[in-house]
Amino acid sequence: MRSTLICIFLAILCALSLAACGGQTPMSLPPAGTTAAAGTAVTPTPVPQTDLGTRKNPAPMGQTLTFNGMAADYDNYIVELTAEKVIRGEDAQAMVMEGNSFNDAVGEGQEYILVLINAKVLESKNGERVSLSSIDFDFYSAAGVRYDAYVVVTGLEHSFPYVYPAAPGQPPTEIKGYAYQIVDVGDTPLMVFMDNSEDRLWFTVSADAVLPAPQTHPQSPIPG
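Request: output the structure for the sequence above.
Response:
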């Protein structure tokens, strides 16, 4: 009799346990894209790196790019480059001829393009002297054809001299110089630094393609 009661008691406990389990709602994850509940940490989606400075995505005026040639066979230095200003047409012609009257005159349907470059030399192999020159910059037409004319302009206010890397504890060596070429009137060329290098850098040299200025937000008036 006693064993029979124990069996009945155990059967009742099993029935109650099954009933309790059947009443639970299975846990499920929220659908993708839904907002997490308050107090839940949300991991931001990483922003993919852009290919800024490539031919397909050249840097706008005012954007700084870094050339790193430390692993190359030649030009073993690191330099930051910024295209600060572009001058074309009559203004560029006047600057060139004022610099030196023996500079080349442009032909029919052509004009000078002058691009002011700011360069900061950050490092060089074995601390060696770094030589930057206008010939390190090439220009390609909007049709993708390189301007191959060998142009030498002297007498400009800014030119690229030999420069040294920054000494320990000193700010980077900073210089300015003009990259230049004679291009077709109305063309919208691209400029490239170290065209023969795998680490070449591309720039948009149009006054219309300027890096936007930082946005400022006016302060709201304080309620009185």
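The chain has a mean pLDDT of 80.
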